[in-house]
Design brief:
The protein is of the alpha/beta class and about 280 residues long. It folds into two domains: about 120 residues, Rossmann fold (3-Layer(aba) Sandwich), CATH 3.40.50.1400; about 110 residues, no CATH class. Helix content is about 45%, strand content about 15%. The strands form two sheets. The protein has a four-stranded parallel beta sheet, with helices on both faces. Helix 2 links the parallel strand 1 and strand 2. It is globular and about 60 Å long.
Amino acid sequence: MRKILFLTVFGLLVTLSLSAKQVEKAGLLVMAHGGSPEWNRAVLDAVMPLEKTYSTAVAFGMANPKTLQDAVFELEHEGVTRIAVVRLFMSAESFLLRTLYSLRLSNDESVFSEYSGPPRQLDIAVPVSINKEGLLDASFVGQVLTKRASGLSTEPEKETVLIIGHGPENDEENQRWLERMNLLAESVRESALFHTVRVFTLREDWTGKRKPIELELQTLLRSEAEAGREVLVIPFRLFGFGPYAEVLDGLSYRADSLGLLPDTRVSDWIREQLEAQF
């Protein structure tokens, strides 16, 4: 009886040991848009805390097959037994279908166009999984926006907060952006007695859709100035201020130009998205 018990306990310990080793060999592949050296450094700094536990690699670019393949090879070279992909994008919809195809989680080539290059599936020797959420879905983002607004505010009742995001081309998707941004902005509204808290998407990459928003923002800032209210501009971006200084040039507003990074909660979210795949 004791021998059977010993073997059972020993077998359980071996199983737990193997499971721990498998977890230790899990690789984290973070996808991010990429930008200036400062932009990329901010992302790398956010990923750095996870390097203590996991092999990590970052693929910059808009689901760029080359940077994705390089990241996969880097993780496989480190001996990972599986790869968990975390997409560090604002919208859960951003590049999702193209990424699923590239990672061999879908065979739908219709998501590619002449502008995104020919379809290409990566060479992957280990199982791979992917997160399906974006930062728009993360409640902590509201806390970061509140932190940014609080850092800029001096007299909330005399201030209007504008939260401005990149925004997509598709009108229905853009409406989803605005709805989610409004929900996250509730944290800002509840934090202080601001005169107004409003959200906008600039539709930055599509001139025909961007121009009316630019005019609306400029008109709003002028009217707020005439009413004697200060405008606090918060970028709804992963890092930096984007093109907003150019759009609002010559108008009165206050900003610190900080996006979601730097903030340790971004690192926490990456970890949560990673571990949810186990």
